[in-house]
Amino acid sequence: MSNTKNTSDSQESQQSSRKPQRSQATQISQASQKSQSSQEPRRPKPMEVLREARAQLAELTGMTAESVSSFEQTEEGWVLEVEVLELERVPDTMSLMASYQVELDAEGQLTGYRRARRYERGRADSRGGR
């Protein structure tokens, strides 16, 4: 009978010694996941990128970014085409607009822009749908 008690005691001690090891392994795993996630930069959501790109372009150029006409995620970050009001005229259909190609890095920070074309607001595209 003492053998049975000793066996059950040793099983309990083995089980109790295993439990902390499992929780320690879980804690280590969770800690490594947290450290990996804190080391990797958070990739912004598309709507965050759109809003930030418009705001950054407006701040740099001093012109109103009215809309985003194209949006693409690339390996390096993001590329957008933003429609900007360059010169306001009366009537509004005679205002000068421009399309700017805007490049952003993976975190959504503007890295460059250039004016791709300029046109009157009231004119239709003559360049094959572009």
Write down how many β-strands occur, each being a DSSP E stretch of 2 or more residues: 4
Low-confidence stretches: 16-22
> What spatial form do the alpha-carbon principal axes imply?
elongated
Roughly how many Å is the radius of gyration?
30 Å
- One letter per element, helices H and strands E, the order comes to HHEEEE
Number of helices: 2
End-to-end span in angstroms? Answer: 90 Å
Strand pairing plus helix content: what structural class?
alpha+beta
Rounded mean pLDDT is 79
**Oligomeric state of the chains in view:** single chain
List the helices and strands and how they pair.
Blueprint: H1 2-39, H2 46-61, E1 64-73, E2 77-87, E3 96-105, E4 110-120
Antiparallel strand pairs: 1-2, 2-3, 3-4
What does this structure look like?
This protein has a 4-stranded antiparallel sheet, with helices on one face. The longest helix has 38 residues, at 2-39. With 130 residues, it is of the alpha+beta class. The model is unreliable at 16-22 (pLDDT under 50). It is built from 2 helices and 4 strands. It is elongated, with a radius of gyration of 30 Å.
Short description:
The protein has 130 residues and is of the alpha+beta class. Helix content is 42%, strand content 32%.
Features:
42% helix; elongated; 4 strands; 130 residues; four-stranded antiparallel sheet; single chain; 2 helices; alpha+beta
